[in-house]
Amino acid sequence: MAPCAGGAGAALLIGGLPGSVVGLLLGVALHQGMARMPLAEAQPTRVDRRLVDQLPLTAELLAACMAASGPPSDAADAVARAVGSPMRERLAGVAAELRMGADPADCWERLADGCPALAPLGRCLARASTSGAPPSATLARLAEEQRAAAARAATARTGKAGVLATAPLGGCFLPAFVLIGIVPVVTGLASAFLGRR
């Protein structure tokens, strides 16, 4: 959209055939420039993004349930009922496997299948199931770290949006500055210089 706006602005400002040519060239240049801008980070799938967003709350709820000395299957089931989809399905699956007697470490490790962001949660709970140590403090720290990472990512996205919002302005005002400020000066100097000869 910005390349088209910049090209159209230059074409309207200059007018005629030269304006069309300059507008077309400017639009192509803006399009090429914006296409080469690197992405800040690889965009995760929509489900992964929702899982990452649900991770801090899930970690805190699991910490609270396990601090109350409930069995891990009950904790996973209770948190599954409290959080939304897609985390609900993952935790319900873990709770069902735990109730059927599956190895707790394997169940918690499978929680992160297909979503690497859940790996720290799965490792923490797997370690707690094998060692018997209460995972409450580790889960609370994980939730805090995930919230801080989400805040940093939101700040980075906001900064990127500000930079991208200035591209159309530059595409419109730069040609106008050149045509209104520089071209008349160069034309005047050229005519004065050529008039003396």
Report on the architecture of this protein.
With 197 residues, the chain is mainly α. The chain has helices spanning 2-14, 16-35, 46-67, 72-82, 87-99, 104-110, 119-131, 136-196. The longest helix has 61 residues, at 136-196. The radius of gyration is 29 Å and the shape is rod-shaped. The model is unreliable at 40-44 (pLDDT under 50).
Number of strands: 0
Q: Spans of 5+ residues with little confidence (pLDDT < 50)?
A: 40-44
Main beta sheet, described? Answer: none
On the 0 to 100 scale, the average pLDDT is 82
Shape: rod-shaped
Distance between the termini: 48 Å
Please describe the topology of this protein:
Blueprint: H1 2-14, H2 16-35, H3 46-67, H4 72-82, H5 87-99, H6 104-110, H7 119-131, H8 136-196
Helix pairs in contact: 1-2, 1-8, 3-4, 3-8, 4-5, 6-7
Keywords, please?
197 residues, mainly alpha, 8 helices, 81% helix, rod-shaped
Care to give the gist of this entry?
The protein has 197 residues and is mainly α. Helix content is 81%, strand content 0%.
